[in-house]
Design a protein that fits this description.
CATH class of one domain in chain A: Alpha Beta
Largest sheet of chain A: 7 strands, parallel
GO molecular function, one term (chains A, B): oxidoreductase activity
Keywords (chains A, B): Carbohydrate metabolism, NADP
Strand content of chain A: 15-25%
Oligomer: homodimer
Structural class of chain A: alpha/beta
Protein name (chains A, B): Nucleoside-diphosphate-sugar epimerase
Pfam family, one (chains A, B): Epimerase
Amino acid sequence: MHVLIIGAGGFIGSRLATEYRQENPSASITLFDLHFPEKLREDPGFTVITGNFGEPKWIDQLLESKPDLIFHLAAVVSGEAEKNFELGMDVNLRASLRLLEKCRELGHQPRIVFASSCGIFGGDVRQIITEDTAPKPRSSYGTQKAIVDLLMNDYSRRGFVDARCLRLPTITVRPGKPNAATSSFLSSIIREPLNGQEASYPVNPDAEFWILSPRQVVRNFIHAASLDAKLIGADRCINLPGLTVSVQHMIDCLQKVAGVKTARRIRHEPDAFLQSIVLTWPPHFNTRKADQLGFTADRDVEEIIQNYIREENIQIDLHES
Amino acid sequence: MHVLIIGAGGFIGSRLATEYRQENPSASITLFDLHFPEKLREDPGFTVITGNFGEPKWIDQLLESKPDLIFHLAAVVSGEAEKNFELGMDVNLRASLRLLEKCRELGHQPRIVFASSCGIFGGDVRQIITEDTAPKPRSSYGTQKAIVDLLMNDYSRRGFVDARCLRLPTITVRPGKPNAATSSFLSSIIREPLNGQEASYPVNPDAEFWILSPRQVVRNFIHAASLDAKLIGADRCINLPGLTVSVQHMIDCLQKVAGVKTARRIRHEPDAFLQSIVLTWPPHFNTRKADQLGFTADRDVEEIIQNYIREENIQIDLHES
């Protein structure tokens, strides 16, 4: 079993690589990304290749050995794809198409688990989203992901690949530093205060979002890879389960878990650019398809925060006054 | 006012060119296609350019003079795109993307009327389709059209173009000869018997389809070009109005208009390939958006047949016994 993880240097990709190997110790795993954390780069249990997914030669080289299973997580994130249109089109659309074309050319019909996004939906935020809802992205990132979903479906229908597209909620809490995703603040408002730093959010506190933890998304990626294609049906897209939460609720939960002093490090700082994208994301989903297929979400926000604290070895002093 | 019609050699494009000029006599109109009917090629009222939309150099050349309005009707039809995957991807997807990219590069924000298709929908044929229904194409043609719809929306949102995507029902009655569209039989069963020839249909007679006449689709193209973008909204896609009709109803109407001898020239000839595509097209639409914007359909099938007979100067002898 040869497994290729594209975008394995990011925090979801890294965690996926490690957990996939734990569950599949006999798999031969190749990791590809622009950059890798040192721990992964020096791990003899992986074949680590550094390169740019946006450059065609890398796709050719990576596919040459005909991996049986490909996790495709490489992407220019939402804020960056909005600000740098060409880069987003090159990586999110053209490179993904090239990957599919190369699979078609090789003819070995690999299984692909693609990181799509709930950011493909947009517009009326009161609607309840299912897989039957028309994607109406209000960002170039969402447009590019929606297009690749369509391509994955058609290439699967024709037997060129065996794809499953997981539409990811906003993943929180991401460890590390803020990134260029427009949803980055949904991690910052938990992560930074726990590290004794200030954080801000750009929307009204009652704005709601559809979130999932890194732990659950990695579990869902591994689960997707194991599913029989027949169970998924002709539409290979799956809106992952999540939690609908307001920013205020996240702050309240942080306060419950880590104390009032920590929660007070968060402030409201409106940002029109971020609002123009994140407030078009509908936060209400009916994930019956995902639920029936065995995909899972977190129990609640407190559990998400507690898991983050445990995984990152953060010391909490609740007697901080 | 400089107008460019891409795919102007086809029967809808030709008719659009002629009727658009009638209504806009001062417009400078360039026609582009692989082939043209002689009448159009020698018409001094048009600039006629022969070339392949799939070749990038033509798009560059055509766009150089910065047309204010572009009708984009060039396509590899459904049956052909299903049988020749690469050709469909090249023309329907890549060339359309190249057109959009060239517009972005030139920066003059042309208005584009794009011939999309109701073939982007698929699956449960009992559902009632609106613009909020997720496209789930069961053909490569439908996939390619759905992707260009998404691109047209994003390029419009960003101000690179001002697009309106008309999702066409099956156009019937097409004059001329059968083509490689999987829906070609829906014209053949009217056209061929009226010309004294046999025709067949590949589905059960109670199978229903969503149809529109050439007359109405041309009118709707011209109407789309005149609409204020603000009226259309963020989603530039419009499912055109039409009629939901069974094959049997079309045969019955032909018999009413042209007699029983004519109608008896039609026979049932099942075809698994055609069924695998056309039977995935939902025939029920709620076209409130199109209706409110002033798009129109035919009154009934008899009117469609009578218009076809009049336009093609066909002689009907109802005393044929």
